[in-house]
Amino acid sequence: MVPLSVLDLAPIVEGSDAGQALRNSAELARHAERLGYRRFWMAEHHSMPGIASAATAVGLAYVGTQTSTIRIGAGGIMLPNHAPLTIAEQFGTLESLFPGRVDLGLGRAPGTDQAAAFALRRNLNADENQFPNDVLELQGYFKGASGRVRAVPGEGLDIPLWILGSSLFGAQLAAMLGLPYAFASHFAPQMLDDAIRVYRETFRPSEQLDKPYVMLGFNAFVADSDEEAELLSTSIQQAFVALRTGQPTKLPPPQAGYAETLPLQARAILRSVLSCSAIGNPDTARRQVDQFVDRYKPDELMVTAQIHDHQARLKSYLLLMEAVRQPAASAA
Questions:
Q1: Pairing status of strand 300-304 against strand 4-8
Q2: Opening angle at CA 11, ends 60 and 280, nearest 5
Q3: What is the DSSP letter of 81?
Q4: For 54-62, which contacts have Cβ atoms below 8 Å and span 24 or more sequence positions?
Q5: Does the model's pTM come out above 0.85?
Q6: Measured between alpha carbons, how far is residue 150 from residues 58, 88, 89 in Å?
């Protein structure tokens, strides 16, 4: 069975607030830990009314206190928004508090729009080679090889780095540095085939990793029936359309038949965006996961479930894990 992990954006749903979203994240992390998910990652996004994980390291610190064995990490930190030293110190602090449990995924997108990116960075004219240089600088802080400037906490700690991406750039960088690669196929699957091929074909072993390791983002909306699962998936459909039209919102409640209200072109875009998904009852979800795994041969799936009702979200993760375990249990 391919290992499963959780990607959580701490969704703020209509009728609720960020505090409840973060408490829900902690409950989901405990739930995932009990079910046997490998990692619990949170993602950095800014100026988004429906996402509470902007201060990613702070959110992970809270989740870490609520769990004991599951790995916690960023999926990811948008490194151009930060000085590498700051990230080394933040994740060095996390690793000091939760030793042997912390991952650090790094992306080069802003995780927001241009206005918020400028508010974070005060400069949008960085050289295109800055991201690889920042990754190397960050590695240097953990290794204690950055001269007079030292990351404390951070220096000497073993914190696995990951490169995140949805294009060939991230695949090439991860391969060149010998780092594991996480592809954002859960919302940007267009270059999935090419990125995986480039990464695997050009990978160079490193101190951290001796062979390629691919994690793929994957949506899961699993319920007792196909119809209920389809209904649950309409919340993320609405949220995606709102984001694409420049009007991001809190995660809305499900709306039956939502896609049918959209123009044909918008429906096609949604089908493409959600093409890497399991939507259905446990049997349907298992078939969809098997087809995805057979095609792309990932080393791990990073599962996200943007579901309005928190209990339904917990149940979706439960049903998915039970479903993917079923073939092995039957064989045994």
A1: parallel
A2: 115
A3: G
A4: 57/90, 57/91, 57/93, 57/94, 59/10, 59/22, 59/25, 60/94, 60/102, 61/93, 61/94, 61/97, 62/22, 62/25, 62/26
A5: yes
A6: 21, 9, 9
Q: How many CB atoms lie within 10 A of CB 145?
A: 11
> Is residue 14 within 8 Å of 250, Cβ to Cβ?
yes
Q: Is the peptide bond before 217 cis (omega within 30 degrees of 0)?
A: no
pLDDT digits (tens, 9 = 90+) for 214-229: 999 999 999 999 999 9
Mean pLDDT of 30-49: 97
Percent of the chain with pLDDT over 70: 95
Closest CA to 142 of 129, 128, 156: 156
Enter the tokens of residue 224: 């007792």
The answer to whether 136 touches 113, Cβ cutoff 8 Å, is no
Q: Where are the beta strands (DSSP E) in 154-244?
A: 161-165, 181-183, 214-222
Radius of gyration for the chain, computed over Cα atoms and rounded to the nearest angstrom: 19
pLDDT for the residue 124: 63
Contact 213, 246 (CB under 8 A): no
